[in-house]
Amino acid sequence: MDRLRMGLVGAGPWATTVHAAAIEAHPAAELAGVWARRPEAAAEVAQGTSARVHTSLDDLLADVDAVAFAVPPAVQGELAPRAVAAGKHVVLEKPLADDLATAERVAQAVADAGVVSTVVLTLRFDATVRAWVASLPEGPAGPDTVGVGRWFSGALLGGPFAGSAWRGRHGALLDVGPHVIDLLDAALGPVTGVDRAHRDGDTGLWTFGLAHAGGARSSVAMSLTVAIDPTEFEIGMFGSAGRHVLTSRPDDATVPYTTLLDEFVADIAAGRTDGPCSAARGLHLQRVTEQVAAAAG
């Protein structure tokens, strides 16, 4: 089978160090092109790869089979529907868009086009995380079970993402929040509601409670402005089914991203559009984060 020709939209640090690096190295994919609104930035991403720098999004879309997005949520919400309308399979960042209405339009556009989509929920493609999820009891957890999610880092205090406007505006909620909610949802059962939520404007600390389909409850605390290194991370499940705790995260995001690409290519070959991390999953997670934001006021 010919290698999948992939285009990359975006030129930030995540585009360079994860998307471009993993696609370029993948045996079944080819980094065929890069486009960004600043051509000089796109050229920097493409440097040292086989990719061509394109002068417009339409030019890129005409030259590839699939598109990976590494742009802010508002930009992805604008551009992703254009890609899928052109029949391109898509790798989408989370959140799908800057607001729920636009995220719904993105997910609907993917569904209408019948293309394959996957959201970059890197933890779900990590071997250790997958083994942990597979070890959990089957079925939604009942009211005798509680869950906990914690993610504390100093990512917004310094480093490549400290200047990110959308991360600064939303804090941890839209950046690492989808990862935490996704794993709690997988562990305890689908999230059906938000019990409470609060954001501390001084510390950037988000705290909220989630209700799950089987009656379980979980509590989350997250911040990207804690002076701590390495990141403090935990997903836990406690109750009649025992004690199940995950504290492992991948050190190198290109490793789970490579697994993501393995499955993305396989899904395209099989015509499978309902993968577990498709745009529909991204929309479910964004509906939860929207409820959290609304509850926090």
Number of strands: 12
Structural class: alpha/beta
Indicate the multimeric state: single chain
As residue ranges, the low-confidence spans are: none
Count up the helices: 11
Strand order of the largest sheet: 3-2-1-4-5-6
Shape: globular
CATH class of the largest domain: Alpha Beta
Task: Give the proportion of residues in helices.
Answer: 25-40%
For the sheet with most strands, the description reads: 6 strands, parallel
**DSSP strand content:** 15-25%
Q: What's the CATH architecture of the largest domain? A: 3-Layer(aba) Sandwich
* SSE succession: EHEHEHEHEHEHEHHHEEEEEHH
CATH level-four homologous superfamily name of the largest domain: NAD(P)-binding Rossmann-like Domain
The name of the CATH topology of the largest domain is Rossmann fold
Distance from first to last alpha carbon: 51 Å
| Integer average pLDDT | 96
Q: Nearest-angstrom radius of gyration?
A: 19 Å
Q: What's the structural domain tally? A: 2
Overview of the structural elements:
The chain has 297 residues and is of the alpha/beta class. Helix content is 40%, strand content 23%. The protein has two domains: 4-121 and 253-276, Rossmann fold; 127-249, Dihydrodipicolinate Reductase, domain 2 (2-Layer Sandwich), CATH 3.30.360. The protein is built from eleven helices and twelve strands. It has a six-stranded parallel β-sheet with strand order 3-2-1-4-5-6, with helices on both faces. A six-stranded mixed β-sheet has the order 8-9-10-7-11-12. A hairpin with a 2-residue loop joins strand 11 and strand 12. The chain is globular, with a radius of gyration of 19 Å. The model has no long low-confidence stretch (mean pLDDT 96).
